[in-house]
Every structure is written in C-alpha cells, then in structure tokens.
Fold these 2 entries.
Entry 1:
Amino acid sequence: MSTFLIYKLALVLAVFGITLLVAMYSTYLERKVAAFMQDRVGPDRAGPFGILQPLADGVKMFMKEEIIPNVSNKFLFIVGPCIAMITAIMAGVVIPWGNTITIGGETYTLQIADINIGILYVFGVVSIGVYGIMIGGWASNNKYSLLGAIRASAQMISYELAMGLSIIALIMLTGTLSLREIALMQGGGVGSDWNMWNVVYQPVGFLMFIICAFAECNRMPFDLPESETELVGGYHTEYSSMKLGFYLFAEYINMFTSSALMATLYFGGFNFPFQNDLGLDPNLVTILGTVAFFLKIGFFIFFFMWVRWTLPRFRYDQLMNLGWKILIPLAIANVAITGLVKILVK
C-alpha cells in the first residue's frame, strides 16, 4: 500500500511539474511561432536562442508590484485567479499519460486517477473554471473587466453545449466514460474489435470539439473576453504581478489539457501505429506510447498557435451565431446519425 501511495505521489508531482513546464515554454513557443509567421526572429536574448526567456518572464511577474484597486472587492479579486489556476491543473488528473508499466513485479498505470466517469469529471472541472474569470472581472469593479467577464461566461456556456453534444456521439460509439478505456479501445484493447483512431469514425465530432476547445480556452479567433483592441485586456485588465500570471498560465494549461484530451479521445491517446507488432518489451512500448502521446499534444499546441496568428477575431454576433445556429444543430444531427448507424450495424 505504501509503495502505491509513493508511486501516486511521484506521478502527481511529475504531472504537475510537466504541466507547468509545458505551460511556461508554450509562451516561448508562441512568440517563436508568431515570429516565424511574421518573418521575425523572436526572443533571442535570454540564453541560447532565447531559451531562458520564460524564466525571465517568470521572474518579472514575481518582481512586479502587486496592485489591488481600492474600489475592488479585495477577497474575490484574489480568489478569481486562484480558481482559474486550480481548475486548470485539476483537469489533468484523469488523463491517461501512458499504458501500464511494471516496476519490481508490480504493475502501475500512468494515470493519477482512473475513474469511470472521467469525461464528466473533466467537463465539471472546466465548467467551474469560468467562475474564476467571472469573479475576477466582476470583483475588479472596472467596466472593461466586467464586459470581458460577461463575454467569457456567455461564450463558455454557449460552446460547452456543442462540445458536450459532440462527446455524446463519441460515448455512444465507445460505450464508456473512462478516458483510459477510450484510449485502449483505439489500440485494440478492452475487448474492442477495431484498431482505429476515433477521428476516423467521428470526423464531424472532432471538428466541433476542436472549435469548441478554441472557444473554451479563449484563444483566437474566440478571444473576445480579452480582446485588447476593444476591452484593454478584458477580465484581467486590473490585474498585475502573479495574479495576472495565474490567468495567463491558466490559459496555457487549459490549452495543454485540451490538446491532451483531443489526442486521447480522437487520436489514439498513448497508442501508436504497429505497437502490437514490434515485439518489444511492454515497458518500452509504454515509454514509446507516452512519447507519441506528447508528440500529438505538441502538434495540437502548435495548431492552437498557428490559428492564432492566421485568423482574425470574430465579431460577438458571429461568435454567438456559430455556437447556437451552426454547431449545436450540427452536433445534434451528428448524435442522431451516430445512433442510427449503431442501430443499423447491430
């Protein structure tokens, strides 16, 4: 029992550290991708190729003066970024980062918590995250912050519906809410009769999911809650120092978690082609699967950044029309067609 607890504690610390490291260096990668697309150099002063720039930015955030407006609700002003950061980190505990690994005759899974309602857990935690933005925007007692918070809440509520409906079609296909079982099915495990990634069976569902993920993460072209040209900085206009850092970090952690979810649900998770035909040691296959999983995550993170520096921002009415008039009817049609196909195949 003690060995199991030590392993789980080590896994928690590892996932926590990797999540923060990826979020930190996503800021560096974002600036490098932007520079590449705009024919610039990007960060190149702090360390070789600017590799220490995220550390310099972190030190800057810590050293900046902490400002809390006199007219703000001070308690909620502090609570807002804390909620955003905590909920962003919590979503990663149910993601399967790899298959099983054997150490000293004991078999362990590379997943902090394998609960049978993993998808519902993720949606529950993500839906709480919007409160961090709403509370921060309202507690600032600033009209621009309040407008950003209202936009964020309306946007997230609108696109969570379409995202949930796109996942329902996937659940009908797999018959489980466990993220680990969904990943194993795509590699031919858990009694599955297919060895194909879910994106082949649910291309429309994946397209809707990734669009909604952009909206949930407040990423371009859905960054209306921040929208510097209209709202100065949106819901975090009045924030400074590490409170602002928490909001910015939470956005990048959410991007990392969304990428991991897309890789798990639609692109095989820790499975990779021909893994069962290589004849390698199971532990080595697990390690290679984890590397493949992070490569998939890296691709989706790059895709988030690529879109940011390619597409312009939607107008607010276009944002709402896309969510309510296009994505939700399309998601309902996808659920109906998936159910019909399941009936006909049986």
Entry 2:
Amino acid sequence: MESSLAKYRLVHLYECRGIGSRTLYKMLKFDPTLHDIFLMTKHELQYYFQISNRYIDVTYFDIHNNDPANTYEKYAKMNIQIITILDEIYPYLLKQIYNPPLILYCKGDIELLYNASLAVVGTRNPSNYGVQATKEIVRSLVKKKFTIVSGLAKGIDFIAHQTCIEHTGQTIAVLGSGFSHIYPRNHEQIANIIGKSHLLLSEYPPNTKPQKTNFPERNRIISGLTVGTIVIEAREKSGSLITADFALNEGREVFAVPGSIFSDTSKGTNFLIQQGAKLIQSIDDILSELPKNTTQMV
C-alpha cells in the first residue's frame, strides 16, 4: 500500500511548480515514501531541497492544493498511462542509464517498451541517399521484429517511423514536449497513429510546450530504451550525435551509415566511424554486433 502511495506522491510532486527532477531525486533520497515532504514547512522545504525564493510560495501551494487522484483520472480520460521509476514495469534498460526519467507518460501500447528495440536517428534534412538508407535499414529491422525508436523530428526520424508503420512494424516516438503540444505540428497526424497503434512517450506532462533544452534530454531516453543507436546522416554538430554520445556513455552499440566526404550531412556519421562506431552497409553488420540474448535485455 505504501509503495502505491509513493507513486501517487511522486507524480504529484513531479507536476508541482518549482520542483525539477534533481529536487525530486533529493526528496526520494531524504524519504523514499515521500510522505514526510507533505508535512514540511516552507522553511524546511527550502532548507533541505534548496527551493528558491522565487518558487517556494507556488511550490508549497501546489503541494497542498493539487489533487493527485484528479490528475490520474484526468490522464485516464486522455488515454495516458503513467509509469514511474518506482514501478516494477519501468523499462529495465532505461533504468540503467545515468539520470533515468522519473516519470514516463505513455500513450499507446506500453508492451512495446519491453521489445528488442533499436534507435534510428539522423538529420532533419536528409539527402536522397539518406532517405533510401533509412527505408532499407528500417524495412530490414522490421522483418527481424525489432521495434524502432526515434524522436518524431522531421527528416530521418519521421521516415523511420513512417517506414516502420508502412511495413507493419512497431515504433516508439519519444517527444521533447507534452502530448498536447506535438512538435513539429505537421507531425500530429502520424503522432495520432503512433499513439493509437504504437507508443508515444514523454517525460514531460501533457501541457508542456516544446523547449530547446528538452530535446537533448529527450535523446537520452531514445538511446536508453534501446540496445543500439543507428545514425543515418548527421552534420558535425547534430542532435543525433548527442544521442550517439548518450549510447556510448551507457555502453550501448552505436552504428553509422558512411557517406560522401563532400556531403555536410555525412560529416557527423563519418566522424562517428572514425571514433569507433560500427560502419554499416546492411542489417547483417548490425546483427553481428548485438548480443545473442538481446531479447532478454529489455
């Protein structure tokens, strides 16, 4: 019973103004049940968790006035499921990363979180070569029953999701915003399809608008959910390289499609190969690097 209440308290505190993930981790360390947080005065909250003067009044108000039961009921009506880091069903691979998200807002089939999956990411402005490579690789991975994880961005991400759906595969889209603010807006149609028949995922509450700082954070979830990340065309300074860095730091496989030395969108992938990423020309190059027990890792 207490563990169930702790989950409710965690979601409740997560959505209070002035409380970020770092503060919540401190609160969990202070009291794993989070019960004592609700008994603290403003002064105690500031003393123990360094909540600023700017936020302490609204933070204290939200802690004692928002109703977590109403929050869960509201999300249920929106077909949103919540998985917390306190839940046994929290994805194993994601839990192993540095700074795993405390809350996962899910829309769709949460069973996809436990499939063998690979991330497919790349530039927002792919060449014809990049488009063809994405379609061929995703098509081949779908045949091998891999779930495709990407970030719903324009370009390679969108093509990866779309190709997966067209070939009756399964895909997870990880957002850098809440479900009420799909970004980019012209991807709302495919987001609706994914949210009904696949899985939309975000660590941000539904009303969260897209912010620049959200997307690098989002990338750690893309790589964290998967056994490996495939980068198909990326510039030298690219969000896709951030995803690859997260994967490398967590000991996951990184694959890169080689490209022309004259193409700006190949400079990032060619750099990854120089740094030790596996050069891939076909799905066989991917499968040969994955552990035989891949399906047991997720």
